[in-house]
User: What shape does this take?
Amino acid sequence: MSEELLRQRDYWNREITQFEAIYSHKKSSLSAWLDRMFRRDMYDRFVYTLKNTEPVADHTVLDVGCGTGRYIMALMQRGCPHATGIDISEQMIGHCRAQAQAGGFSDKTEFIRTDLLDYTPPRVFDVCIGIGLFDYITDPLPVLRKMRDCTGVRLIASFPRKWTWRAPIRKARLALRGCNVRFFTRAQVRDLLTAAGFKSISLSTVGKLFCVTASVR
Assistant: This one.
């Protein structure tokens, strides 16, 4: 694992509780209100992803950078036949496995601690998800190409927008915690997806993010 990935792994191992609290709202009323005000795009990208995974009952899913498994658990509840989540953080993967067992989805899910570029998929997945993934990847193109190879129908991904008021604040805040973050223009996102071999690229502005649905044919 590269030095960059080791730093990312250590960051997410430390931040798992704070990250999960954004979705669970297990925090003070003030902190929850601040999340709703300033992190609304995180909730909106969740809705976007679930909508664009439909018909979920017909689609197997690979979630790259699955975090605490929120997306996979929601897809399971909507009838997804199988989902695999990969993440470089062992704390995240352990949490995912516990959530799947508690929800009765262990037989329909698999969670693996690995980097995508080291992962050999046992199948081609109908849908590949990369939400909150490309914020932290220095060279996205090899990752997108590997996602293209893993995908049979469509990719759903998010990219943080460049030139928003929050971008420099977020970059400085995460740098203090030892975590690099990058931002994208619309043209950069489209060029990356095209170079990776994706077709029919639909790119939407969701708050301070670009959310993308792209087909493989």
